[in-house]
């Protein structure tokens, strides 16, 4: 049982929220080993199937924009169940796909369902905790979520070794149905009093509008930071195979180990952040971890300028840059959502959609302009991390000015 300023949060709830949050990363990575098989069966180029990754991220953003306001108006649990139900249905429909266009259609529906479901996770944390406690919960949920993409390809490979590729999507259906059962059992149900209050509040203000989130100056800095920090990670994920196996010409086995080292770094920093939250505020730690990411980006640019490129130096620089996100994501989430009370669902939707959009656009742009070279990729990563750090510094300064003005007004009174 985790004690927070608002109420006790059970470990079962944390695991449940983590499982719901991990459904989408698992859905993205678990069927990657099946792409060549599906491409051959449907008689299309594998690049036509690779597009489904971008389509999924696009649908994920749409789903969050749909689910956020709904969760504020109707409660977190019903919308989580709705999203997971859509995800499960789409996963089942994917097994019937015989043409690439049909696969795209059901894949988009699957991602929309995933987006509707996951938007309630940070909102539920915000409902139950604030400040350092919220940051700790975000860190713990992020830690468990990181496991999904790291083991998903292995699970996909195992399923393919035993069954047809359809079973990858059958497995996704089973996982999402299991997540629904966990949500029903462990996600807090609203009392009759809470439902009446929600209905009255909804009728009075009709919920916060998406545009209102962007008008919140203090919160915007944290949203920008999360979006561009996530873009740093997605740029690495998108281009890592090209960099390691193309530029440095390592084998697929060595590439897997180098990639896994970044996941390990994320987990280590995630746990370190959780420990440091006992002594420091999330905003301070966020600034420190973004500084760490910028430092890693500078090292990457230096490595790209060397005539004889060093694999160990570059790999270490990547680990520093990517690992920083283990502390960035949890703290930026907590700092952003503290500005929104009962509207946390809508605010979370905007945050998630912005994060997905930045990750998809910037990583795709980096892949397009890289032309097989290291330097354009790392330059884009450095610029993105600098934007994130600058946004947080400006947001913190604005908060300090506001606090100082409030104190002066109080003194005058």
CATH class of the largest domain: Mainly Alpha
Helix content: over 70%
> Secondary-structure element sequence?
EEHHHHHHHHHHHHHHHHH
Strand content: under 5%
Task: Give the name of the CATH architecture of the largest domain.
Answer: Up-down Bundle
**Biggest sheet record:** 2 strands, antiparallel
Mean pLDDT: 82
Tally of alpha and pi helices: 17
- What assembly state would you assign to the polypeptide chains in this entry? single chain
CATH fold name of the largest domain: Growth Hormone, Chain: A
Strands in their spatial order, largest beta sheet: 1-2
Overall structural class, as computed from helix and strand content, comes to: mainly alpha
**How many domains in all?**
2
What does this protein structure show overall?
The protein is mainly α and 413 residues long. The chain folds into two domains: 10-202, Growth Hormone, Chain: A; 214-406, Growth Hormone, Chain: A. Helices cover 84% and strands 1% of the residues. The protein has 17 helices and two strands. It has helices at residues 11-29, 35-42, 46-74, 76-94, 100-118, 120-128, 131-162, 166-186, 192-205, 210-215, 217-247, 252-276, 282-305, 311-323, 325-337, 344-370, 374-412; strands at residues 2-3, 8-9. Strands 1-2 form a two-stranded antiparallel ribbon. A hairpin with a 4-residue loop joins strand 1 (2-3) and strand 2 (8-9). The termini are far apart.
